[in-house]
Amino acid sequence: MNITQGQRLALGSIGIADRANLSISIQSGHVIDMVCFGLDAQSKLSDDRYMVFFNQPSAPGDAVKLVAPGQFEINLAALPASIDRLVFTAAIDGAGAMKDIADSRFVITAPGNPTGANCAFSGSTFSVEKAIMVADIYRKNGEWRLQANLQGFSEGLDALVRHFGGEVLDAPPAPPVQATVSLEKKIAAAAPALISLAKKAQISLEKNNLTHVKAQVAVVLDASGSMNGQYSRGHVQEVLNRLIPLAVAFDDDASLDVFAFGAKPVHLSPATLSNYSNFIETDHRGWRKWEVGARVNDEPKAMRMVMDHYRRNGSKLPVYILFLSDGGVHENRAITKLMVEAASQPFFWQFVGLGGHNYGILEKLDDMAGRVVDNCNFFAMDNLSDLSEEALYDCLMEEFPAWLKEARNKGIITG
Questions:
Q1: Which among 107, 246, 275, 297 has the fewest CB atoms less than 10 Å away?
Q2: Domain boundaries, the chain
């Protein structure tokens, strides 16, 4: 059923009893926050647990869940008697107005039933409004009803919160809080499965005063034959998953540069929030098809490829490089020479040993003399599960802050 602004109808008339899916799709170049407010009989937010948004994606009892950007699952039977109305809203975060949006719509259906109600709208409905009440679900005479609201506010999300009786701090939040919200928004918008990792990564970044650092992020993956078990058991994919939030936090284009090596190195596609989830099995036809030559290690060739890649763009932004190996390192002299060379350039190397032995010079680089700055760190673990996610992020960030300070002081980096 197509409905228009202001139209009201009983949910039962479109086949909805207690459970419903409501999807809001707004075509816009702006960042838009989608929020559900659960209101009492006075249309006030008397219990802020029923404000459902990216930072609180579920109400008590899963009465309302934000399962993806703009997509809500609703269980009306789980709402307490004190909640009389659900108001689904959209607010522009930052500059812009709702008049800028293109063809948009909201759709409400019962689970498993493609029929329901559809309401189209566009920027022609609005002018300076930055926030709109898109749709209401409310109780009347013992039944739940729907209204296509589409009323606007000249201010953004803060105005909506105040309108519904909520409190907004007058003072702006401290920078770390701003950074947390920003990172979680980016993750929630494209990869909600990573929200938990994003929160843990952000805590580590805040502890190390890294929330405003801009850097390029790379991972170099040992793809030699001895690593087959780590790949087939999903451990390498999990390493990449845990790095993605750091790449999003540091990198303007929210991507992770990926390299792999055996006897020769290969430059893979960037890993992003849209392609990360099965990257190891799919990129360049999957890890079994990566053209790394004979399944032996040649670390210096991989290091040279990475350094040459970043030198070509001429940037002095820092480059954080995680280099994963299961050992068998024997090119000690060549690696030492490369790390001395790299020390005068914007590269920080975090070497991680995974489930192997004989890490050779990688274990000694941290104390190696003859470098302009200490540009390397190393730690090893038998299994990824040996470290909690929080502990892993702390290990990954252990020496990066000190290198940033020293590299800035010596003019090696500008970021």
A1: 275
A2: 2-168, 181-409
